[in-house]
């Protein structure tokens, strides 16, 4: 199995990367970044930082699209993820960890890298998109044939229903670039959608993560615990839960561990709704292309899977491994 993660650099993206690194024994085929929670350049820095806990195993991080396909302005998620996307934790880390890992590129080059991965990996390829779907849409528009034989594409985004506490809002990933989401729904082969409302059935509690971090006492878990503090505070203020929804880790689980049977996956024909009630709503449409959707999840088993990934990650990372090399400190207000 070969794994590529397309990420917008938030806290749940960091957890997803750690889970993917655990499944792949610390080795990813590649990472690309997109605007969303933070800028794609900041997201690349965050992805490089996560990988730095796995010495000598970093995959290249390709800086991707910095705006929607239509070029309209986009809204970040600093209020939920922090100014740096990781709850302010990057301020404690020197910048040298990104040297030789982050690849500045034109978005077309990043799209081409995605297509090259899909073509080379074929049936062994797993592509997980945890942010706006712009990079994948660009890649499909440039070279759709490259994706014909890919084993699985999983995109976290859209929603099958309108969550009660979010009726005045939108599903972030799809609404950030609706045109890209439509292209992915219409063209991406072997596509599985991980909707928002399915993800919201799994709550990762603050105390649960704290116990796990204390039990293993490894830098990578301490990092995740600290990064999640701001994220969980935001959810506690918004929704009254002392925890968060591990959206992106669930997308990784669906892509990399289908044999675990965590999800009720059903095929169907869906398109993005046009009624404006909730931006990013997925509607049944008999004229649409057939895709698969994770309609339900076994929450307890999903948390067990995440715990297993974090335990494996603790074992893969050195006890004293710290990506604090270099002299310049990261500025959490950097773009």
């Amino acid at each position: 199995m070969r794994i590529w993660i397309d990420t917008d650099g938030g806290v749940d993206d960091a957890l997803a990367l750690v889970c993917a690194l655990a499944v792949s024994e610390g080795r990813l085929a590649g990472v690309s970044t997109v605007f969303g929670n933070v800028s794609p350049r900041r997201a690349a820095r965050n992805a490089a930082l996560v990988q730095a806990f796995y010495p000598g195993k970093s995959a290249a991080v390709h800086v991707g699209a910095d705006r929607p396909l239509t070029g309209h302005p986009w809204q970040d998620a600093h209020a939920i993820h922090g100014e740096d996307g990781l709850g302010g934790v990057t301020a404690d880390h020197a910048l040298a960890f990104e040297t030789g890992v982050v690849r500045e590129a034109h978005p077309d080059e990043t799209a081409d890298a995605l297509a090259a991965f899909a073509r080379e990996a074929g049936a062994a390829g797993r592509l997980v998109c945890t942010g706006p779907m712009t990079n994948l849409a660009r890649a499909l528009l440039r070279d759709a044939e490259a994706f014909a034989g890919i084993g699985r594409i999983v995109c976290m985004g859209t929603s099958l229903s309108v969550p009660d506490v979010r009726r005045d809002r939108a599903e972030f990933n799809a609404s950030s670039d609706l045109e890209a989401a439509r292209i992915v729904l219409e063209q991406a082969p072997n596509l599985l959608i991980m909707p928002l409302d399915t993800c919201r059935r799994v709550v990762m509690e603050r105390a649960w993560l704290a116990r796990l971090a204390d039990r293993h006492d490894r830098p990578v878990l301490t990092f995740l615990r600290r990064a999640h503090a701001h994220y969980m505070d935001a959810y506690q203020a918004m929704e009254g839960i002392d925890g968060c929804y591990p959206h992106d880790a669930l997308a990784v689980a669906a892509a990399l561990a289908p044999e675990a049977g965590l999800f009720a996956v059903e095929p169907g024909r869906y398109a993005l709704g046009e009624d404006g009630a909730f931006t990013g709503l997925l509607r049944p449409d008999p004229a649409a292309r057939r895709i698969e959707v994770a309609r339900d999840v076994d929450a307890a088993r999903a948390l067990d899977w995440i715990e297993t990934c974090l335990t494996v990650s603790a074992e893969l990372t050195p006890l004293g491994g710290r990506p604090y090399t270099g002299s310049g400190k990261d500025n959490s207000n950097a773009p």
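The first helix runs from residue 11 to 23. The chain has twelve helices and twelve strands.
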